[in-house]
Amino acid sequence: MTTHTVTLYTDGSTAPKNPGPSGYGFYAVYEDGSAYDGYGPIGELKTNNVAELLAAFHGISFLLTLPDIKKIIVISDSSYFIDGTKSLNKWKLKQWKTSTGKEVANKEEWILLDNLFSTAKNNTIELVFKWVRGHNGNVGNTRADNNANLGRKAVLDKALEPVIIFNEASDKSIAIITDTATKKAKAKTITESRINPLVNANKWMFDTNRNYFDTATGYYVYTLSSYKESDKLAGKNIGKPNPNTRYSIALLKEPIKELEKIKVMYNNAFEGGNVPISGDLAKITQSKIWGTLMDDNAMTLKGRTIVHESSTALSKIIYPPLLVFRLEEIFTKGMLLLSKAFISKTNTDSFIVDITDKLIDVSDKGKLSVKSSYTNTARILEINDIAINEAIPTFDVKLIPGTDLITRGGLSNLIKYYKTDIKLYLLLTDLVIKDTPIKSYNVATVIEAGGDKAIYYSADSSYRIIKQ
Predict the structure, then answer these.
(1) Is 14 inside a domain boundary?
(2) Domain that holds residue 264
(3) 166 pLDDT higher than 50
(4) What are phi and psi of 432, to 5 degrees?
(5) Does residue 221 form part of some domain?
(6) 208-216: average pLDDT
(7) Do 94 and 139 have their domain in common?
(8) pLDDT for position 3
(9) In the predicted model, what is the mean pLDDT of the chain?
(10) What are residue 177's phi and psi, to 5 degrees?
C-alpha cells in the first residue's frame, strides 16, 4: 500500500475590520502535485486569530477523511497558530490557563484542534507544523490566502456551504518532491495550465451583472466561441456569417475560479449595467498567466480592458451593438438546443443519437482513448449508419472538427481530465420529414462528462441535406 505525505497550507482572512467577516482557506498538495483547494465561511464577527485556527482545523479535518496519508506538513503564516501548537501540552496541564493564570485566548478553538491532533495520532498520522512568511511569494501560501479571501466573501454572500476542489497533477500547483540524499522536501512549480476542457474555445463571452448560474439545475454557464482576431472572416467581423466559427456552451457543476474573478472585476466596475465582454482564453490560459490569476494584484481594470501584470490584455468590451444582438441570438439558439438534448429528448423535430462508440475506444481495463480513425488532420469526419428509428433508413452525417465537433486533441484532453463517464451525442434538429427518408436537418454535438455538459454548434454551417 502506498502512503502519502501531504503539505497543507492554511490561512484565515478577516476584513475590513478585525473582528469582522471571516473565512478560512487551505491548499493541500500531494507528492505528485495533485492538490485540493478548500475554503468556507467562519462568521460575521470573528477575529483573525480565530480564522487562522479554524483554517488549520478545517484543512486537517478534511485530510483525515482521505485514505493512505501518513504525514501532514502544516504550513501557516500565523505565528500565533504555530507557537500555540508548541504550548498545547502546557495549557492542558494547567486546565487551559496561561503561565500568568489567565484563561487561554480562543480556548474553544484550541480544544477543537487538540482533539483533532489526538485523532491524527491515534490513526498513526504524523503532524508537522512550520511557519512561512506571508505575502512573500510562496505559491502555496498565496493559494491558501486566495482561498481564505473566497471564504470571507462567502460570508458576505451568505453562502454557507464549504467548497472543496480537486486539481490533478498537471494543474499549476506545488509538487513536493523528496530529495533522497537529504530527506528534505523541496518545492517545484508546475507551470502547465489546466482549464476544464469543455471550455475549449478562443473566446469566452458574458454580460456584466447577468446571472450565469442556473439555480434550477445547479450549473455554471460559460458561453464560448472559436473565432480568432486574425481570422479574415471572423475576428473583427464576429457575428457575421462564417462557416468556420464554432460556438459552444459549457454547463459546469463547479465554477472556474479564475474566470469568475474576471467577471467579478467587471461586475464591480459596471455595477447595475449589462456590458458585453469578450475574454481572450488563448491568453488567459497561458501558463505564465493562468497560475497567477488568483493573486490579489495579478490583474488591473484599465478603462474597458483587464490587463495582466505582464502587460497582456485579457479581455475587452464587445461592440458595436449589432454584433452583441447577433451573439445573443446565437447563444439563445445554443441554450434551446441544450434544452432539446437533455430536457425533452423525444421531440417531433429533433433526435439525439449516442455516438460515443464511434469516437472513443474502451480497453479491457476500462481505459478510454480516442479512436485511431479520428486523426488530427481530419477535415471532415463522417459518422456512418446513424439510426433514428425503424421507420427512417440509416444515413451518414459529415461533421467538421473544430466547428460542430470537438477536435481530436480536445477529445483527448477531455479523456485525460475526466478519465471515465464520457458520452458524446449527435443532436439532429429541425428535421424535414415527408414520409421517409429525411430530406434535411441541422446538426450539433453534445457532450456529457462527469456530470458536466456542453454543446458544440455553428450558427451558419450546421444545415445538412440528404441526397435522394
Answers:
(1) yes
(2) 203-324
(3) yes
(4) -100, 110
(5) yes
(6) 82
(7) yes
(8) 82
(9) 82
(10) -110, 130
